[in-house]
Amino acid sequence: MAERLADKIAIVTGAGSRGPGVGNGKATAILMAREGARVLCVDAQKERAEETVALIRAERGEAAAFAADVTRRGECDGMVAEAVSRWGGLDILHNNVGVESRQMLMDTTEEEWDRVMAVDLKSMLLATQAAVPELERRGGGAVTCVSSIAALRGAGRTAYAAAKAGVLGFVVSVALQLAPKRIRVNAIAPGTVWTPMVEDLGTEMRERRRHAIPLGTEGTAWDVGWAAVYLASAEARWVTGQTLVVDGGLTLTTR
């Protein structure tokens, strides 16, 4: 086990996978634990978080599961209180919760818009607000918010693209506000990585997505997880308010 995050206490939201395989949150939690962090794995469904915890403990890492709906302020406060009660503080918040919407403009209902904004954007606000006092008490820390390349290029998924673009605006605003507290805030914008969230797209679409990537290889949740480890580590001590694009070069194209 490496030590890039030795003695750090981390919260990873959306730490469970919604189907077989490894999603971005699960990969991030596992990699942070491998790098020495104690990880509170948070998911709306506790059994999903418990699966991730079991994998971490099988590798002799330290982790615990916690159920929370991070669109609710009280539950965000609760997850932070759990990390502090269990391990004595908080150093890292990884905001990973998100849902997808594939609806175009005229098909997007008000209910769909509100649902996506609450999960993909409001959750970032509430979780970060809950975490800041404890991060400050530790002398600083790192917050990472997962966005998407849908925020950076024409994606056609109206509510999803708008929410993910909102994440980037949130990050630059909050990074400036929290810099005097030595709290770094950054974003990750994953490309078309293959995770359980997109499993229903099928094999043909999967191959089309892979073919569109300039590097010619498919991205995985582990690629996103390693980006999260970097941004949470001392290696990124002078990096804040930035968006790290992890997409195999897809945003360099117009396809």
Structural class comes to alpha/beta
Shape: globular
Gyration radius, to the nearest Å?
17 Å
Average pLDDT, all residues: 94
The tally of strands reads 7
Strand order of the largest sheet: 3-2-1-4-5-6-7
Largest β sheet strand count, sense and barrel closure: 7 strands, parallel
Order of helices and strands: EHEHEHEHEHEHHE
Q: Into which percent range does the helicity of residues fall?
A: 40-55%
Describe the structure.
The chain is an alpha/beta fold. Helices cover 44% and strands 15% of the residues. The protein has 7 helices and 7 strands. It has helices at residues 24-34, 46-58, 73-87, 110-137, 158-178, 202-212, 221-232, and strands at residues 9-13, 38-43, 62-67, 92-95, 141-146, 183-190, 243-246. Strand 2 (38-43), helix 2 and strand 3 (62-67) form a beta-alpha-beta unit. The longest helix is centred in the middle third of the chain and has 28 residues, at 110-137. The protein is globular.
Summarize the structure.
The protein has 255 residues and is of the alpha/beta class. Helices cover 44% and strands 15% of the residues. Helix 5 links the parallel strand 5 (141-146) and strand 6 (183-190).
